[in-house]
Write a structure and sequence with these properties.
Layout lengths: L2 E12 L2 E12 L3 E5 L6 H9 L4 E8 L2 E2 L5 H7 L1 E4 L11 H9 L6 H14 L1 H4 L11 H13 L5 E5 L7 H16 L3 E6 L2 H7 L2 E6 L2 E7 L3 H15 L1
Parallel strand pairs: 3-8, 3-9, 6-7, 7-8
Antiparallel strand pairs: 1-2, 1-4, 4-5, 9-10
Helix pairs in contact: 3-6, 8-9
The structure holds adenosine-5'-triphosphate (ATP).
Adenosine-5'-triphosphate (ATP) binds next to strand 2 and helix 1.
Keywords: Amino-acid transport, ATP-binding, Nucleotide-binding, Transport
Family: Belongs to the ABC transporter superfamily.
GO molecular function, one term: ATP binding
Length: 240
């Protein structure tokens, strides 16, 4: 199968400040790549480079076999890259449905296409269907996370980048977020998951990349989860 995402020898950062030195990985349809590493390792910066928010210092990012080059972020979203940022880009004063419509904006759909995508989102996240007229600010943390994911899914991306979906959520809710991401990956969605929680990541991952100081320190498939958990633990311990 061909790669949806191919990140090759990525170097990037903020202006001239380089924080990612050499990161490579690929993701195919239906795969979940877990990008792990301690605070400040460069995980969010890698996601920002894929989204086009940070410029490349070196290397190459291909989406669907095409070099993304200097394609601006809004075009990447329209081409099929969805992002769920850690500080959820929801508008608190708008309702659930208004936030979802905003997510679909880049597609400039007619009413019927928009309605059927809204139906899809409510089907995928039934808790949102019950609250479609509620303002986002009134939702629980878990519901806001679901809405942020649903919003990113509105334009029908083929690749979803998710930054720390378990952050700040109660353990009971984390399970709900996990199962919705698992359902998505079963539909063929390619997912890059950035996580602090190794257990959350390993529950979903088809392969794992651990980075530190902007470089890959472990890349492994998740064929044997216990073995991989031990490898990730060893990689983390080696950093201390
Ligand atoms: P965390 O889990 O803490 O978000 P992370 O692995 O996602 O960690 P990044 O957010 O990618 O790490 O940060 C990587 C490095 O880049 C850190 O040293 C951080 O201080 C630095 N950094 C992040 N944002 C900026 C910025 N806007 N300007 C300059 N440096 C930044």
């Amino acid at each position: 199968m061909s790669n949806i995402l191919d990140v090759r020898n990525l170097a990037t950062g903020y202006g001239d400040l380089r924080v990612v030195w050499d990161v490579s990985f690929t993701v195919q349809a239906g795969e979940v790549l877990a990008l792990l590493g301690r605070n400040g390792a460069g995980k969010t910066t890698v996601l920002r480079a894929i989204t086009g928010l940070n410029r490349l210092h070196a290397g190459r990012i291909e989406f669907d076999g095409h070099d993304l080059g200097r394609t601006p972020p809004y075009k990447r979203i329209a081409q099929g890259i969805g992002i769920v940022q850690e500080n959820k880009r929801l508008i608190g004063d708008l309702t659930v449905e208004e936030n979802l419509r905003l997510g679909a904006h880049v597609r400039r759909w007619r009413r019927s296409a928009l309605t059927s995508r809204l139906d899809w989102a409510y089907d995928m996240f039934p808790a949102l269907a019950d609250r479609r007229g509620t303002t986002a600010a009134m939702l629980s943390g878990g519901q806001q996370q679901m809405l942020a994911i649903a919003q990113a899914l509105m334009p029908e991306p083929r690749l979803l980048l998710v930054d720390e979906p378990s952050a700040g959520l109660a353990p009971a809710i984390v399970g709900d977020v996990l199962s919705s991401l698992a359902r998505l990956s079963e539909t063929g969605m390619a997912i890059v998951l950035v996580e602090q929680s190794v257990d959350f990541a390993l529950a979903l991952a088809s392969h794992v990349v651990v980075i530190d100081l902007g470089r890959v320190v472990l890349a492994a498939p998740a064929d044997d989860r216990d073995e991989l958990r031990a490898q990730v633990r060893d990689a983390y311990l080696a950093l201390v």
